[in-house]
Design a protein that fits this description.
Blueprint lengths: L32 H5 L6 H9 L5 H4 L9 H16 L3 H8 L14 H9 L18 H14 L19 H9 L19 H15 L3
Helix pairs in contact: 2-9, 4-6, 4-9, 7-8, 7-9
């Protein structure tokens, strides 16, 4: 897993909420590649901060900011967040907990970030011994991973009332926690856009906001 280097973006304006990606607001496959490669205005300032703090892996930064985040890239983003927050590598944490990161938990990937998250109970895969590393994540799934990380790695109590009307029950405690801690503001009109495709710009912003909330642990 590589970390993005000194990539600086234009200082554009920032909206107060994350832009939706589902329904008619979703980025079209016909959108020209240069547009997809640049972040939306609302995300630029926080992406700059994320890059400056070295908390976004290149699996996120190098595939276009408005393109979807894969399940593998999401796993690498979460484990880099863990490393930056704890000051320890995932190898060190695994050794402390007796986890063997050379063990392959899934038939379709041997990525150590995924293995670490499986040991921690942060991911369970999709069933049938598969993780499905190339498929895309949703906004609800990444926030759920953040909440499970808070519980499993940092022993936090994850709580907070879910303020949105479109969040499934399984994600509601984690979205509530994220909202209470400034990790998400939703997309407006009391909506979180739970099933919206997670874009790389969303991932970077969620990770940065989480790092900001956790960095003094």
């Amino acid at each position: 897993m590589r970390i993005a280097g000194d990539i600086r973006l234009p200082d554009w304006s920032l909206d107060i909420a994350e832009a939706p990606t589902s329904s008619t607001a979703q980025t079209s496959a016909a959108t020209p590649a240069p547009t997809r490669n640049m972040p939306s205005d609302w995300a630029v300032d926080e992406i700059n901060e994320a890059l400056a703090n070295g908390i976004v892996p290149t699996s996120v930064t190098d595939s276009g900011w408005q393109n979807p985040t894969s399940r593998l890239a999401a796993a690498e983003a979460i484990t880099l967040l863990i490393e930056k927050t704890s000051g320890k590598t995932i190898e060190q944490i695994a050794a402390e907990r007796g986890w063997d990161l050379t063990t392959n938990h899934f038939a379709d990937t041997n990525n150590q970030s995924v293995t670490f998250l499986k040991y921690a109970g942060i991911t369970t895969g999709i069933g049938n011994n598969r993780y499905d590393p190339s498929s895309n994540y949703t906004r609800a799934q990444i926030v759920t991973m953040i909440g499970r990380t808070a519980e499993a790695i940092f022993n936090m109590e994850v709580k907070g009332a879910n303020p949105f009307i479109d969040v499934p029950d399984w994600a509601a405690p984690y979205v509530g926690y994220a909202a209470a801690n400034g990790i998400t503001q939703g997309i407006g009109a009391d909506r979180f856009d739970s099933d919206g495709t997670l874009q790389n710009q969303h991932t970077a912003v969620f990770i940065y906001r989480t790092y900001s909330a956790w960095k003094d642990l």
